[in-house]
Amino acid sequence: MSGKKPLRLGVNIDHVATIRNARGGEHPDPVRAAELAMSAGADGVTAHLRGDRRHIRDDDMRRLRNEIPLPLNFEMAATAEMHMLVSEIRPHACCIVPENREEKTTEGGLDVAGQDNFIRPFVQSIKGMGVRVSLFVDPDFRQIEAAKRAGAEIVEIHTGAYHEACLSTTNSRIKAELELIRKAAAFAHSLGLEVHAGHGLTFHNVQPVAAIGELVELNIGHFLIGESIFMGLAESVKEMRRLMDDARTGGLY
Ligand code: PXP
């Protein structure tokens, strides 16, 4: 291995619940998916309990916490309702994200700088429960500084703009987005924050991100669950793991 720290893979199982909920009932079970992801090499499980419960339900969170021996990363908006659930479920970590009912997915990072006075006490209160706090932010120095001031231990850098750039054909845009992520990761690390990244990562775009040495965790969901239709969940997790490890050790990027 190079001098870089090992890179953890957090598997987001929200969209197993999306498929389950399309028919109601209990199948497919996101907890079973988490078990399978664990046996295939996932280092953690991530699930987003949305205010509208469009995929993950409260009881999924309880079961993930009680039945899966991996760290549970509870993604959520900073609301009183979620605060109560965290206090009951006590996950390993919370990742606070912005939430908008109309969006298909989390479209941008949290505006920590613009709501300092609200986010800081929220973060402090969750930390007081012994739960680690991560703030999901764009690769923007102002937001990272605000996350540090708020007392977060972790920032997760939103890689959605990089994903969008990868769908286009312009290499210069991809490079520019990657550079923003690199600089943001280095800056956050220099402030003493643990740095994660996620959103829109796939087999095709993960390696340049995985090669960024300051990153210690990637959280990946939609692509892995989608790809599992074709290759199975265990194989898709293993392939992502392999790509991440190769990027970390290979010196290609
Ligand atoms: N990290 C955070 C904070 C997210 O909100 C999401 C999407 O739920 C992800 C990672 C995973 O994104 P994707 O499903 O596009 O891999």
> What level of helicity do the residues show?
40-55%
Which term fits the overall shape?
globular
Number of strands: 8
What is the N-to-C order of secondary-structure elements (H for helix, E for strand)?
A: EHHEHEHEHEHEHHEHEHH
Mean pLDDT, rounded to whole units? 95
Estimated share of beta-strand residues: 15-25%
Tally the structural domains: 1
CATH domain class? Alpha Beta
- What is the radius of gyration? 17 Å
CATH architecture: Alpha-Beta Barrel
Strand order of the largest sheet: 1-2-3-4-5-6-7-8
> Distance between the terminal alpha carbons, to the nearest Å?
15 Å
Q: Low-confidence spans: pLDDT under 50, at least 5 residues?
A: none
By CATH's scheme, which homologous superfamily applies?
Aldolase class I
Helical stretch tally: 11
Cofactors, ions, other ligands: pyridoxine-5'-phosphate
* CATH T-level topology: TIM Barrel
Question: Which sheet architecture does the biggest sheet show?
Answer: 8 strands, parallel, barrel
Structural class: alpha/beta
What does this 3D model show about the protein?
The protein is an alpha/beta fold and 253 residues long. The protein has one domain (8-249): Aldolase class I (TIM Barrel). The chain has 11 helices and 8 strands. It has helices spanning 14-23, 30-39, 58-67, 80-89, 116-127, 141-150, 160-167, 171-190, 206-210, 222-231, 233-250, and strands at 8-12, 44-48, 72-76, 93-96, 132-137, 154-158, 194-198, 215-220. An 8-stranded parallel barrel has the order 1-2-3-4-5-6-7-8, surrounded by 7 helices. Helix 4 links the parallel strand 3 and strand 4. Helix 5 (116-127) crosses helix 6, helix 7 runs antiparallel to helix 8 and helix 10 packs across helix 11. The longest helix is centred in the last third of the chain and has 20 residues, at 171-190. The chain starts with 7 loop residues before the first strand and ends with a helix. The model has no long low-confidence stretch (mean pLDDT 95). The structure holds pyridoxine-5'-phosphate. Residues 12, 14, 48, 75, 95, 97, 105-106, 136, 156, 198-201, 219-223 line the site of pyridoxine-5'-phosphate (PXP).
